[in-house]
Design a protein that fits this description.
By secondary structure, the chain is an alpha+beta fold. The chain has two helices and nine strands, in the order αββββαβββββ. It has helices at 2-21, 88-99, and strands at 28-32, 39-46, 49-65, 68-77, 111-121, 127-136, 139-152, 155-165, 187-200. The N and C termini lie far apart (60 Å).
Length: 201
């Protein structure tokens, strides 16, 4: 009898401890990115100067546990590449070249993608280190960068500055890493992206 009482008491104790210590399933919510207000800015560099512009998003979403960012992804519509430091014929010529097979091959590869694989808090609310996979021209590489999320006019805006080595994505036109004697026609491998994602709170 004592053994039965002990077994019953032990079982009750185990169930009580489990009830207080078992982790709750986190509730993950999804916020769609407002593609009309979001964009990715770009800046490319060459020996004789630089050019900059924007490209629009096709789709995207961010995932949260409460107010904490935990994941997400977005697609970039490469057909929307624009140049903002030139105008008219010169802008059209540069954009056409960027869309050609020399650079992003937009006809064959109309979408670039980014998917978050890890989110690390940097110690203050809205400040994160992001790890994820960037796909350009069917080449996928893991990249890391810092991102900040702020609330503005009832919306959340997530921003990040990223430096990409285009040669890792088989974009080698004008690269001094692969071609000799380019002189002032050299285009640097690294280009900068400024991500600006807008979504509802």
């Amino acid at each position: 009898m004592n053994k039965l009482l002990f077994s019953g008491a032990f079982a009750a104790l185990v169930l009580t401890v489990f009830a207080f210590t078992a982790p709750e399933n986190p509730v993950v919510t999804t916020a769609n990115i407002n593609t009309a207000e979001s964009y990715v800015g770009w800046t490319g560099y060459k020996v004789t100067g630089k050019h900059h512009g924007k490209v629009q998003l096709k789709s995207g979403e961010l995932k949260f546990e409460g107010d904490k960012l935990v994941g997400g992804s977005f697609e970039i519509n490469m057909h929307t590449i624009s140049c903002e430091d030139l105008s008219g014929e010169w802008a059209d010529k540069l954009v056409g070249h960027l869309k050609s097979e020399d650079f992003f091959g937009v006809t064959k590869y109309p979408v670039a993608k980014f998917e978050i694989t890890q989110v690390i808090s940097r110690g203050t609310p809205g400040s994160y280190k992001i790890v994820g996979n960037l796909t350009i021209k069917d080449t996928t590489k893991s990249i890391k960068f810092n991102a900040d999320m702020k609330e503005t006019d009832g919306k959340s805006v997530t921003t990040a500055d990223i430096t990409i080595d285009r040669s890792e994505y088989d974009i080698r036109y004008g690269s001094g890493s692969f071609f000799d004697n380019l002189g002032d026609k050299t285009i640097y491998d690294e280009f900068d992206l400024s991500v600006n994602l807008v979504h509802n709170k």
